[in-house]
Amino acid sequence: xxxxxxxxxxxxxxxxxxxxxxxxxxxxxxxxxxxxxxxxxxxxxxxxxxxxxxxxxxxxxxxxxxxxxxxxxxxxxxxxxxxxxxxxxxxxxxxxxxxxxxxxxxxxxxxxxxxxxxxxxxxxxxxxxxxxxxxxxxxxxxxxxxxxxxxxxxxxxxxxxxxxxxxxxxxxxxxxxxxxxxxxxxxxxxxxxxxxxxxxxxxxxxxxxxxxxxxxxxxxxxxxx
Length: 225
Description:
The protein is built from four helices and 17 strands. It has 225 residues and is mainly β. It is globular, with a radius of gyration of 19 Å. The termini are far apart. It has helices spanning 48-56, 118-123, 181-186, 208-218, and strands at 2-6, 13-18, 23-26, 31-34, 39-43, 64-68, 74-78, 86-99, 103-107, 110-114, 129-141, 146-151, 156-159, 164-168, 172-177, 191-196, 199-204. The strands form three sheets. Strands 3, 5, 6, 8, 9, 10, 11, 12, 14 and 17 form a ten-stranded antiparallel sheet that branches. The chain has a four-stranded antiparallel sheet with strand order 1-2-7-4, with no helix packed on it. The chain has a three-stranded antiparallel sheet with strand order 13-16-15.
């Protein structure tokens, strides 16, 4: 499978070129277009319990779409819901943790599971996090552009959890305050996540939560004219 990502970083589009009978798994609503001969199968991947876990704990759709090319191959284009970037990770037996809403698509060799663990809880906005592991291409999306950072053994790097898209599961994760009590309360930063290497992390340059916090005060109040 060949994947070409166009129009980065603001309005990214992933163009997946499928060989004969090859298929790609995608989050519900991610499809933009597809060529003749490509068929869709919608199912609760992995069974009822796995799908329920991904939906309730991983922030993803209960049903997912599998796009399969015909004998002549085909093309599927995919895009995230928010304006932003797409990054392709080539997994070779590794495990990657993906934040809620950031999973876009993957090859058949990638297994997706929700995880309730101390590391997942500390790194996520709540319990919403997915574990992606196996062999193949994994597409993750962001709000804003994606900044990819690789840190060395025992190196530490601090990220606001609402900006964290994905990270290697082998990395250390520790929530902490951004400074003293005054900074924690008044800086607008609050709690952050300290990552410890070695490993790779993907960071989105905009925060969906910050967007929500900006929009809510702009909404008309009940009874106002």
